Amino acid sequence: MIPAQKRLGRPREVNLPPAWYVVLEPPVQVPTAAIFSAPELRRNTACFKSTDWHPGFGGNDLEPIARARFPAVGEAIDCLSTFGRAQMSGSGACVFAEFGQREEAESVLSRLPSGMRRWLATGLARHPLFDLAV
Q: Which tens digit of pLDDT belongs to each residue from 34-64?
């Protein structure tokens, strides 16, 4: 077996600022197959190097499909967008927004409508698998 360091290359440490995430779970199930099989799904997104990544970088090509087919996802994004940049997580249905201060995230959490499950998540300063790669 090849050690992780040989397979993955030398890990590069990234200093991430503290982050707290408000997560909303709209009352809808989004089947992953329905999103990935959509003919209108953009399939030519430009590649980027991991070294170009920074907090707030990028978007989610699956989000417009989920919004169009599952209006509750769009409503959750719109609701959370009134407080910050909201994005869909993965292929849906959860959405999230990042905040730099715990107090700010808790304040947003307390002002959200009660019709959706919601919670606060703390960002990690280090990837849980980092030590396996060194």
A: 999 999 888 887 787 777 766 667 778 899 9
Question: For the segment 20-29, what is each residue's pLDDT rounded down to a tens digit?
Answer: 999 999 999 9
pTM of the model: 0.79
Domains (range + CATH), the chain: 26-40+60-134 (3.30.70.890)
Pick from 40, 7, 26: nearest CA to 133: 7
Query: Under a CB-based contact definition with an 8 Å cutoff, are residues 73 and 92 in contact?
Result: yes
- Centroid of chain to Cα 63: 11
